[in-house]
Amino acid sequence: MDAMKHLILISLFIVSISGCSNYKPTIQQGNALDSTTVSQIKVGMSKSDVIQALGSPLLTDDFNQSRWDYLYYVTERGQRSEQKNLTLQFDGNVITKIN
């Protein structure tokens, strides 16, 4: 009888910890910066054209409104596996430099 109780306790313990896992989902953050979309961005485009193509920038500097930063990264299993950056410089409403 003691063996049966012991077996039941072990079974319950195994079932209870089987739901515990170290699963970390893949997380994508920022603006998707695929090469096709980025290649459409050209010097001379307006801010509204850029927003239409890429969306709003992830980062804007309050002290330098002429710089927009687009960032994209993927985190897999807690580690950053991919990162892309795009910086646009504007003069007024027009792109003057793409990094």
Automatic annotation (TrEMBL):
The organism of origin for this protein: Leucothrix arctica
Q: Which Gene Ontology BP annotations are present?
A: Gram-negative-bacterium-type cell outer membrane assembly; protein insertion into membrane
Q: Which HAMAP family match?
A: OM_assembly_BamE
Could you say which protein family the record assigns here? Belongs to the BamE family.
> What are the alphabetically sorted keywords of the record?
Cell outer membrane, Lipoprotein, Membrane, Palmitate, Signal
What is the topology of this protein in the membrane according to its UniProt annotation? Lipid-anchor
The protein's location, in the record's own words, is:
Cell outer membrane
User: Record's GO cellular component, any one?
Assistant: Bam protein complex
Q: What does this protein do?
A: Part of the outer membrane protein assembly complex, which is involved in assembly and insertion of beta-barrel proteins into the outer membrane.
Instruction: Indicate what this protein is called per its UniProt record.
Output: Outer membrane protein assembly factor BamE
- What's the subunit arrangement here? Part of the Bam complex.
Give the principal location in a single coarse category.
Answer: membrane
Q: Name one GO molecular function term.
A: protein-macromolecule adaptor activity
- All residue ranges annotated as the Outer membrane protein assembly factor BamE domain in the record: 30-97
Superkingdom of this protein's organism: Bacteria
Q: Does the keyword Lipoprotein apply?
A: yes
